[in-house]
Amino acid sequence: MIADYLEADRMTADLHRIGIDPPIDASAYDLIFLGTFTWEMGATPDEVKDFVLEIGYKPNNVALFGTGDTQFGGDDLFCLAVDKLAAFYESRWPGLKIEQSPRGSQELIVEKWLEGVLHHVKSLA
Questions:
Q1: What is the pLDDT of residue 125?
Q2: I want to staple 65 with a disulfide (CB 3.0 to 4.6 A). Which of 1, 51, 57, 96 is the partner?
Q3: Looking at residues 10-24, what average pLDDT do you find?
Q4: To which protein family does this belong (predicted)?
Q5: Rounded CA gap, 102 and 108, in Å?
Q6: Residue 106 to residue 112: CA distance in whole angstroms
Q7: What's the CA angle centered on 84, arms 52 and 77, to 5 degrees?
Q8: Topology of the domain comprising 2-124
């Protein structure tokens, strides 16, 4: 959904599948969208931790998003991995947290978040 939105705005988007695709050169990207789910009691998944190690440094152009499930852990743990990663990367954007797969009104939340991130990036250019 994010890639489709970016491409509709005439931007190029590469999809990197953590643990499957070869490591990326983060410095080659103007903006990195990093998605995660929240594992167990609010933990960041090992695959995402591997990506952090793969990069080797903390780029300042990372926007975080993730899905969660409020029925497991309630509001306190909902998408906690997004909060942890946003703090780790000192992201300039608030993390996007949505319930499982975005549908209906959640798609609008994703679009609004993307508009905010891209507006900020374009204003810096």
A1: 62
A2: 96
A3: 90
A4: Belongs to the flavodoxin family.
A5: 9
A6: 10
A7: 130
A8: Rossmann fold (3.40.50)
